Amino acid sequence: MMIKMNDVGESNGELAFWLDGKLISHLRKDSPKGVFIFDKFLPNKSGEGVVWDHSTGERRSLPEVPGGSPFPGFNWRTTQELNVNFVWLYVYLTQGSGGHANEIWFDDVVIATDYIGPLR
Fold it and tell me: CA–CA separation, 3 vs 17, rounded Å?
């Protein structure tokens, strides 16, 4: 996972994920194109979107844009002093069926300031 903080006053923050060294998602200002369905951005999709308008307390339709709308970027912070200061390994699990144990194991976790790639 990679997170890049935005410049204050800009929505140019980024978020990217790799799995076994393969980039599976990179969200940044104007890329990729897609559609919002409430809190989910669906990259490489088009169609009418919908978001929740907190000012009116109602859903608001987003017009269909051929090829999808550019991702708006992230506005993670409003002050220069705010930066990434912790990592929380977290997973959501639902109740398993009888006799089934839901387990998540984390191993080889590395915190770095540059991409280091998968272990070989």
Answer: 9
Dihedral of the CA atoms 79, 84, 13, 26 (nearest 10)?
A: -170
Sign (positive or negative) of CA dihedral 62, 67, 39, 76: negative
Residue bearing tokens 């009418």: 48
State how far the Cα of 72 lies from the Cα of 64, in Å rounded to an integer: 16
How many whole angstroms separate alpha carbon 120 and alpha carbon 110? 14
| CB burial string 33-63: b at 16+ within 10 A, e below | bbbbeeeebeeeeeeebeeeeeeeeeeeeee
Task: Give me the sheet containing 22-27, strands edge to edge.
Answer: 2-4, 14-19, 22-27
pLDDT digits (tens, 9 = 90+) for 60-100: 999 998 999 999 999 999 999 999 888 888 876 767 777 77
| Cα gap 89→45, rounded to integer Å | 29
